[in-house]
Amino acid sequence: MQKLTKALLVAALLPVMAVAQDSTQFVKGTWKELTNRARKEHKPIFIDTYFEGCHACKDMEVKVFPRPEVKKYMEENFICTGYDVFKEEFGMEMCRKYFMRGFPTYLVISGDGQLLDRSSGYQEPDRFMAFLKNNIVRYKAGKTLAGFGNSLSSKDPAFYGAMWDKNYKGGDKDEIAGYLAKQKDKLAESTFKVMQMAAVLPDDYRTFYLKNRGAYLDRFGEDLNINIMDKLLKQDIAALPAALDKAAFDVFLQKQQAVYRPEDWNYVQMYYAENYLYKKCKDVRAFLEFAAAHPDRNENRVRYMQFYLGAELAKDAALKAQYLKWADAVVTADASLENLQGLVRMSRGVDQAQARKFLGWVIDKKKSWGDDTAKEEAELKNFGS
User: Fold this and answer.
1) Of 70, 73, 174, 368, which is the most exposed, with the fewest CB atoms less than 10 Å away?
2) Cα–Cα distance between 35 and 196 in angstroms, integer?
3) Is there a contact between 7 and 21 (Cβ–Cβ < 8 Å)?
């Protein structure tokens, strides 16, 4: 039986038909045929975009899609299809339409062609199932990301489409700025996509975006709007001194808190802390102290900062203890398995109670997936012996 990466290829001109899979049922077809079938069966369309050689894409193929509970849910609730974005022109059309630059990216689209939601990257089974189930709720409620039109065509400037050319080396900042300056509707699809290209948003766009961030989220979703937010926050940090000045940083935070929405502030201040205290000032201790004092429930930051800080934490027991204090305030049983396993390793011999807690969560998570936990349970029994 063909591997999923081959069997998922979508020929845009072929009729809709079922394809036997190792994992779940996918179909081939044109945009029109897929949306027609979705309307007929009263299901949304799930689209997996990937490319051959993508490690995260392969992990989804072999670790997530084939799981019985995932396969069953997808077959019963979605019209499922997939595109190799480098081999299939239809896949590349999807990239241009929805500004997709990283893979795998998952799109869920209604029968009338409206984007319901999107997500990206390798997702563990429970996270992926939550994404699928949330989209069924959105579908039944008729809630879509209406900023995107309901066809693959859109009125984008030529320089935008060039982003997906093999020899693309970056856009002309003057051309991008000139295009944005001419747009009357800052909430339009093509305008929003060109905003993604701008290294720095023009002042009038920055003001408009902050005033209308809720509307942007409703129209285009969280996945792309985080790119816009990060542009603004990166620009803010440029005003801070290169050498660590805690007093100046405190004043800066007080000023910026009045600029951003209260519901965004936890993310904003932790972005500032990571990118100023750690990346700009190279002060690991200052970052960890701030992070432990201002936990924002972003367990993914705890996960990737363990990788970046690994060398420093291995050399300094006090720093490791500070990191674990931060992790304890942020990480819950719902954290990724990768994160929990890393925290078990780090807390061994440092805080046995904490190690037992994280290991217990690892066991619970793996059991919920139907995975073997004999090794972890044996280790748990040995703690404290």
Assistant:
1) 174
2) 28
3) yes
Residues 6+ apart with CB under 8 A from 18: 25, 26, 27
Using one digit for the tens of pLDDT, what is the confidence trace for 277-293? 999 999 999 999 999 99
Name, in order, each residue with C-beta under 8 angstroms of 362's C-beta and a sequence gap of 6 or more: 337, 340, 341, 344, 373, 376
CA distance linking residue 208 with residue 212, whole number of Å: 6
Nearest to 107 by CA among 132, 71, 86: 132
Is the distance from CB of 308 to CB of 282 less than 8 angstroms?
no
Distance CA 126, CA 130 (A): 6
The CB-based long-range contact list for 164-171 (8 Å cut-off, 24+ gap) reads 164/92, 164/95, 164/96, 171/197
Phi, psi angle pair for 209, to nearest 5°: -65, -45
Q: Nearest Cα to 362, choosing from 327, 335, 328?
A: 335
Q: Look-up: residue for tokens 């693309």?
A: 168
pTM (2 decimals)?
Answer: 0.89
Beta bridge partners of 28: 17
Are 119 and 106 in contact, with CB atoms under 8 Å apart?
yes
- Mapped onto helix, strand or coil, the DSSP state of residue 46 is strand
Q: Which residues contact 336 (CB under 8 A, 6 or more apart)?
A: 124, 127, 299, 300, 303
| Span 17-67, pLDDT tens digits | 333 334 446 787 889 999 999 999 999 999 999 999 999 999 998 999 999
Contact 88, 14 (CB under 8 A): no
Where does 200-249 show beta strands of DSSP type E? none
Cβ–Cβ < 8 Å for 85, 94: yes
